[in-house]
């Protein structure tokens, strides 16, 4: 099913199912941020300004999810990959200044990732891609100096 935000008021058969999905989403997406923002982004920002580091990471992030688009039974199996891919790049660009402004904390990126995966909201993809791309452009315009200069970029990797 292509996204329709208003198809169903509550996409779960029970409150217990919704709570289970919320619990899994609380772990799944945010835990990825240890790798994406805790490791990969600081390493990329050692060589590239934040805009390019975030964009490159967005490309990697998009391709990372490609197998889910090839499997039936996954939410992505019914989606078009291209809008998701563009959205991944846009989201990565949006999250990059959050990460840098918080001096390397992955809390904001983790919360952002959780909200993007929040199972309570029915799938609006691919329509949300337009909003994410517009938001990414706005974030770059508002944070132009920070996005195109290295001094404010976090380059230290988070160690657990």
Task: Walk me through what this model shows.
The chain is mainly α. It has one domain (15-147). Helix content is 65%, strand content 0%. It contains seven helices and no strands. The chain has helices at 15-47, 50-64, 66-69, 81-101, 107-117, 127-142, 144-147. Helix 1 (15-47) packs across helix 2, helix 2 (50-64) packs across helix 4 and helix 4 (81-101) packs parallel to helix 6. It starts with 14 loop residues before the first helix and ends in a 13-residue tail after the last helix. The model has no long low-confidence stretch (mean pLDDT 82).
- The topology string of helices and strands comes to HHHHHHH
Q: Counting H and I runs of at least 4 residues, what is the number of helices?
A: 7
Q: Report the radius of gyration as a whole number of Å.
A: 16 Å
- pLDDT < 50 runs, ≥5 residues: none
User: Class by helix and strand content?
Assistant: mainly alpha
Helix content: 55-70%
What attributes does this structure have?
single chain; 160 residues; mainly alpha; 7 helices; 65% helix; globular
Summarize the structure.
With 160 residues, this protein is mainly alpha-helical. Helix content is 65%, strand content 0%. Helix 1 packs across helix 2.
Mind sketching the topology for me?
Layout: H1 15-47, H2 50-64, H3 66-69, H4 81-101, H5 107-117, H6 127-142, H7 144-147
Helix pairs in contact: 1-2, 1-5, 2-4, 4-5, 4-6
